[in-house]
């Protein structure tokens, strides 16, 4: 092969189109967001706590951003607190409440918490730590479609329940929980008590779900910019004005004392711009992507009949498709990690489960809803972005079928 041919092949490799079907893990940042952030890196770079002109300008940018986020969540600006992302917001909701209750004399061994068995690791690990400290935690089992039964929640609620934490949309199978109905059940259980509070991790729900905190009836709610085509390292938590939680970070008292640390102005501005963009053609984009997602599932089922859908088809994010390929008459299903790597080689980005799940034994979410090891270890998660096309899906299905057929041929 001559030098010219080598260079041509090298360039073709870089020109290969990338089809990103893993936006649940993270999303690329939009150009408009980068443009909005740019001045706050090296022009309007002041410390928001400073009384100087550049400090005041930075503070004004933060408060303008806070209003934008508050409008999006149908909340008041003073109910919005900026954090480093979904994980910190979830930790603040849970441990912030625990810190407050201990501060007023409550024993952790007397506190009861409820979550589900398919939550993100940033929720489950918090409750694992609380159990280690002596708290009582109940894990609400979801049905085989990935959605809770309100009657099961009703049975778990107790007089000493202080917090219910449930994810709006699951990060792996994309199923959407009935948040309003859950909130109504929790309010009914309070009677004349203040608790339990209701926390919702909406990190995965920002692009396609209604996040009006008033309509949902939530007390605490988490959002994360990197799941919405915004920057990494920035998120926010809604804390209802009547709710009492204490800080988990201590320092200069920024964010009205709840989240100390110099505010990251460029990222906060980026989050606000991200939200402004989301609000444009919200429903139109969701309808379009759902049509393509449904086409994708029908095409997979036609080409790979063994494929099984994980989670409810209707009550799920419009861009989420989670399947398992167990392979009939074989002890195991496909090697899903190998499939992901093979797809990656032809420019298709996918995943087997949540990127934050470090366990190496398949999808715990799929295992929880199905009770089936073959399904858990052969799961594939595809999450579509708004610019995906039918032509892209046809390309993906073509290569997916080839890869699966090779595995079937060479497996023993």
Topology overview:
Blueprint: H1 3-15, E1 19-20, H2 31-37, H3 39-42, H4 53-72, E2 80-83, H5 86-103, E3 112-116, H6 121-133, E4 136-140, H7 150-156, E5 161-167, H8 179-190, E6 197-201, H9 213-216, E7 220-224, E8 235-239, H10 265-278, H11 282-303, E9 308-309, E10 320-324, H12 336-345, E11 348-349, H13 364-370, H14 373-377, E12 379-383, H15 390-410
Parallel strand pairs: 1-11, 3-4, 3-5, 5-6, 6-7
Antiparallel strand pairs: 2-8, 7-8, 9-10, 10-12
Keywords:
single chain, 412 residues, alpha/beta, 7-stranded mixed sheet, 3-stranded antiparallel sheet
Task: Give a structural overview.
The protein is of the alpha/beta class. The protein is 43% helix and 13% strand. The strands form 3 sheets. A 7-stranded mixed beta sheet has the order 2-8-7-6-5-3-4, sandwiched between helices. Strand 3 (112-116), helix 6 (121-133) and strand 4 form a beta-alpha-beta unit. Helix 2 packs antiparallel against helix 10 and helix 5 (86-103) runs parallel beside helix 6. The chain is globular. Residues 5-15 have low confidence and may be disordered.
């Amino acid at each position: 092969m001559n030098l010219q041919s080598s260079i041509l092949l090298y360039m073709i490799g870089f020109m290969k189109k990338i089809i990103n079907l893993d936006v649940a893990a993270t999303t690329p940042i939009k150009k408009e967001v980068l443009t909005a952030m740019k001045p706050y890196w090296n022009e309007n770079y002041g410390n928001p706590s400073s009384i100087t002109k550049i400090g005041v300008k930075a503070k004004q940018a933060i408060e303008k951003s806070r209003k934008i986020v508050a409008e999006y969540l149908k909340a008041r600006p003073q109910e919005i607190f900026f954090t480093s992302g979904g994980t910190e917001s979830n930790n603040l909701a849970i441990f912030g409440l625990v810190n407050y209750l201990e501060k007023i004399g409550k024993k952790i061994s007397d506190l009861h918490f409820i979550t589900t068995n398919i939550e993100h690791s940033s929720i489950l690990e918090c409750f694992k730590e609380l159990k280690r400290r002596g708290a009582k935690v109940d894990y609400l089992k979801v049905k085989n479609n990935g959605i809770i039964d309100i009657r099961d929640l009703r049975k778990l609620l107790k007089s000493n329940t202080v917090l219910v934490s449930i994810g709006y949309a699951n990060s792996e199978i994309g199923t959407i929980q009935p948040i309003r109905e859950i909130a109504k059940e929790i309010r009914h259980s309070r009677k004349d008590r203040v608790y339990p509070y209701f926390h919702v991790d909406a990190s995965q729900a920002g692009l396609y779900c209604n996040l009006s905190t008033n309509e949902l009836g939530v007390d605490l709610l988490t959002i994360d910019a990197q799941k919405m085509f915004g920057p990494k390292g920035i998120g926010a938590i809604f804390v209802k004005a009547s709710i009492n939680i204490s800080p988990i970070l201590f320092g200069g008292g920024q964010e009205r004392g709840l989240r100390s640390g110099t505010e990251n102005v460029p990222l906060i501005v980026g989050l606000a711009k991200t939200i402004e963009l989301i609000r444009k053609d919200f429903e139109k984009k969701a309808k379009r992507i759902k049509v393509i997602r449904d086409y994708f599932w029908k095409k997979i089922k036609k080409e790979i009949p063994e494929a099984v859908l994980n989670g409810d088809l209707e009550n799920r994010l419009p861009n989420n498709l989670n399947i398992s390929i167990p392979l009939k008459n074989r002890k195991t299903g496909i090697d899903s990690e190998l499939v992901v790597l093979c797809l990656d080689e032809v420019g298709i980005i996918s995943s087997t489960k949540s990127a934050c799940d470090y366990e190496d034994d398949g999808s715990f979410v799929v295992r929880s809803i199905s009770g089936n090891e073959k399904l858990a270890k052969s799961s594939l998660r595809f999450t579509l972005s708004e610019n995906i096309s039918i032509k892209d899906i046809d390309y993906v299905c073509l290569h997916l079928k080839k890869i699966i057929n090779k595995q079937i041929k060479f497996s023993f």
